[in-house]
Amino acid sequence: MSERTAARVGAQRGDAESGTPPVIDAAFARWLAARAGQALLEVRESVGYADPKALKAAGDQASHDLIRAELARWRPADAVLSEEDESSRTAWSEGTPRPDRLGAQRVWIIDPLDGTREFSEQGRTDWAVHVALWTADCSRPNCLAAGAVALPAQHRVLATDEPPAYPPLPLSSATGGKIRLAASRSRPPEFLTALGEDIGAEMVPMGSAGAKIAAVISGEADAYIHAGGQYEWDSAAPVAVATATGLHASRIDGTTLQYNEADPRLPDLVVCRKDLAPRLLAALQRHLRVP
Ligand SMILES: Nc1ncnc2c1ncn2[C@@H]1O[C@H](COP(=O)(O)O)[C@@H](OP(=O)(O)O)[C@H]1O
Ligand SMILES: [Mg+2]
């Protein structure tokens, strides 16, 4: 391998021997999410499932600590917005101290463990690690420059350095079969059953926003609809990967998903194949209309 090729491969993959991560942000996000995912598998193994609360707490902590330490080491100038970091996650309002992330050029938006409930249930694979990079210098409407979603129990990491292929058109779309709608197992939107009946959809209940968006990316579901509450870290990384893949991702009223806002609440979204978006957004409009 020439010196030049070695330098390029190093920037993309990092150096396994020295533990040096990749230089390119998207590859770095993949590396970081994969490492945190490995740590979570080890926590599951060592803590066990007898006390789900203890397992959730241990997982959140281990993944958060690992990600924060690696970001501090390898991206010290960047700000962080994390579910597990009180100072960054609190909504900012005039007259209170402004969190670093609101004046920063680059902000890592991370959810160290998405699908915490499912993580604590033996045998479930619908939980994820989210690592996204928001930049003030936007080339995309949502300003997400990179993202990685690790699904450790599914042995896969999806990331924007090598975006996954667009999902294949399901057989059902040619034969007039049902649309498969991924939705929260525990907190599905109230209107979803009626909307599903309206458009001839069946529900695919699943944990974790990352796992549901990954299911749309790989074609196991046609769409993911959520409403009623969520935060930027729940969707930033999977939305970065979904949009890099070419899928539709927006608020349920069709507007752009925006990140690194003063208030990190981002309560609803729809992610789906591009061909389905007009139909789903029209149905959402009907079902969200105040009577
Ligand atoms: N109504 C709501 N309010 C706040 N967060 C919500 C929510 N519904 C779902 N979420 C969050 O969105 C993520 C995916 O949820 P679900 O598995 O129900 O689809 C979970 O993240 P965490 O596991 O990181 O807490 C969950 O806490
Ligand atoms: Mg989450």
UniProtKB/TrEMBL annotation:
PROSITE patterns: IMP_1 (PS00629). Keywords: Magnesium, Metal-binding. Its cofactor is Mg(2+). Mg(2+) binds at residues 83, 111, 113-114, 234. Residues 1-20 are annotated as: Disordered. It comes from the Bacteria. It catalyses: adenosine 3',5'-bisphosphate + H2O = AMP + phosphate. GO terms for biological process: 3'-phosphoadenosine 5'-phosphosulfate metabolic process; sulfate assimilation. Pfam families: Inositol_P. GO terms for molecular function: 3'(2'),5'-bisphosphate nucleotidase activity; metal ion binding. InterPro entries: CysQ/Inositol_MonoPase, Inositol_monoP_metal-BS, Inositol_monophosphatase-like. This is 3'(2'),5-bisphosphonucleoside 3'(2')-phosphohydrolase. It comes from Spirilliplanes yamanashiensis. The lineage of its organism: Bacteria, Bacillati, Actinomycetota, Actinomycetes, Micromonosporales.
